[in-house]
Each structure stands twice: as C-alpha cells, then as structure tokens.
Amino acid sequence: MDNKLVYLSLILMISVSQCFESLRTSDKKNCALIPFITAGDPNLETTAKALQVLDQNGADLIELGVPYSDPLADGPVIQAAATRALQKGTRLDQVLEMVATVSPTLKAPIILFTYYNPILHRGIKPFLEQIYQAGARGLVVPDLPLEEAETLLQPAREIGIEVTLLVAPTSPKERIELIARQSQGFIYLVSVTGVTGMRSQVQTRVEDILKEMRSLTDKPIGVGFGISQPEQATQMRNWGADAVIVGSAFVKRLAQGTPEQALSDIGQFCQDLKTAIRN
C-alpha cells in the first residue's frame, strides 16, 4: 500500500465516538458489542484473522490486548494467553505491524488495551503516534491513575486517539463524575471488584451504578469484566449499558482446538452475543 492509500485509509477510519454516535442515531436501543482478544495467542496470524472474523460477525468495536508480563487487571484466562504470546516472542512492534495490515479491512474501530509502563517506556507521544498510524483509534490503560490521566489525554486528543477511563464498582459519586468528564469515546464500567474473568452471575449493584452514572453524564457507558454469556449481555443492555465488553470467553475459545475451529467458534459466539443485545 503506497503512502497516499495509507493516508486515505487512516482518514476514513471512524473514531470510537463516531461508532457510538452511529449506533445511537440508527437505533436508540442498539447496544454496542466489544469483544476482547489477546494479540499473539495462539499467534499473530490467527489474531489478524480473528479481528476480521469478529468484525464480520457483529462486533461494533474490538479491544485488542497487548501482552504484558505483569497484567494486574487480568484474570487467569487472559494472563495465560498473554504469557503464551510473550513466550512466542510477541512484542508491541509486531502487534502494531499486524494491526496496520488488518485495520484497513475492518469497519470496527480497534481499541488497544495496554498498561502504563510500556507507554512511558516508549514515550507518551511517540507511542500514541505509532498506534494511530497503525490504525488504532482507542486506548484503555487499566492502571492509569485518574490524577495522572491528563498527561496521556491531552496528547491523545491532539493525535486522534480516544483514551477510555475505567470506573470501579466501589468508586464514589464524586470520582465517577470526574472520570466521566475526562473519559474519551465512552466510559468503561468494571462490573466486579477484582480482575477480569468469566462469572456465572453479574453483580446486581451494576444496575444501580449505571443509573447513577446516567444521571451524571450522557457519554456512552460500556460494561465489562465478568460477562461471558448472551443472557448476561442482555441483562446489561436492559440495565442501560451502551456497550457490552466480553473478554475471557473469547480468549478461551481462541485457545482451544485448531486455529480454524477456534475462529469458527468465536464467529458464532460473536453472533450469539450480538443477537442477545439486539433483540
């Protein structure tokens, strides 16, 4: 792809905010589906195919985890996937090369999920410029303190990356309001206290938090951590979520069987989830 085509593809990619606005405009009840997968597990070739499969089977946005050696917010399934990817030599530069190749073929914006230390190590502005050029449009940094968020948010705004901040289920109202004001693209509500992972039930307190957040902001709210079944996705939509984020259940399916079977499985699961939040 020559430089002119690369530039054109970057311009044509929609932002996270534009994706949510499109969903709200087309159907006020249309809830976004955001699958999460770990880059490099089982390999980057399969990751690239998985992004396309998800895009073709109902994903509105896609969260792509960059494998990291000390993933404090990740549960056992995603930690194991990151460890396998790192052991196979998966690094940030390789992940971004893959993203640059596949992102022009996707409708869904890519949101990178990574920790703060790798960003600081590379340099905030160089990191943001590099992921933008690769085609990413959003960023989630789970260990980014609210008090330090502006050091990332300001250059991100200038470059075109939307940084989404997380709200914990234990966050007081005053802190939720501050996070909602600064978060870009949408607000990420963590549905459970603790790390990511599949759970049989979602805490009922999430419904109350969603109502409280809705009284404080009109920004889209995505709910993640612990959602692994279509019924839970439906529950989140009924409680007022603008997006449902599903991670471990996708990562687990990608790690099972042959890559071909795994890709088929995540495609069907993605369809099932989208159907659950569309009806």
UniProtKB/TrEMBL annotation:
EC identifiers of the protein: 4.2.1.20
GO molecular function: tryptophan synthase activity
Keyword set includes Lipid metabolism: no
Catalytic residue list: E63, D74
Protein keywords: Amino-acid biosynthesis, Aromatic amino acid biosynthesis, Lyase, Tryptophan biosynthesis
CDD domains: Tryptophan_synthase_alpha (cd04724)
Listed pathway(s): Amino-acid biosynthesis; L-tryptophan biosynthesis; L-tryptophan from chorismate: step 5/5
PROSITE patterns: TRP_SYNTHASE_ALPHA
A Pfam family this chain is assigned to: Trp_syntA
InterPro entries registered for this protein in UniProt: Aldolase_TIM, RibuloseP-bd_barrel, Trp_synthase_alpha_AS, Trp_synthase_suA
Top-level taxon of the source organism: Bacteria
Catalysed reactions, semicolon-separated: (1S,2R)-1-C-(indol-3-yl)glycerol 3-phosphate + L-serine = D-glyceraldehyde 3-phosphate + L-tryptophan + H2O
KW Lyase (keyword) present: yes
Family matches, as SUPFAM superfamilies: Ribulose-phoshate binding barrel
Record family assignment: Belongs to the TrpA family.
Subunit structure: Tetramer of two alpha and two beta chains.
HAMAP family, per database record: Trp_synth_alpha (MF_00131)
The protein's role, per its UniProt record: The alpha subunit is responsible for the aldol cleavage of indoleglycerol phosphate to indole and glyceraldehyde 3-phosphate.
The protein's name: Tryptophan synthase alpha chain
Annotated source species: Planktothrix agardhii (strain NIVA-CYA 126/8)
